[in-house]
Amino acid sequence: MFPPVKLYTLSTCSHCKATKSLLNECAVKYEFTDVDLLSGEERHAIIEEVKKINENCSFPTIVIGDK
What we know:
Blueprint: E1 5-9, H1 14-25, E2 31-34, H2 40-53, E3 61-64
Parallel strand pairs: 1-2
Antiparallel strand pairs: 1-3
């Protein structure tokens, strides 16, 4: 079984769209969150989560399993 794949993306980001497209072409199952479409506390919480993984908080941030 493959580890879960999670993407943190922005809805307008060309690199994020390309990443999703590649994963789709390769039939990789993944979950994603478009951070820019969130608001309030939910957005703040997700940004803090991304910063723990990626100090620069750049997008897309890709998490495979726990890495």
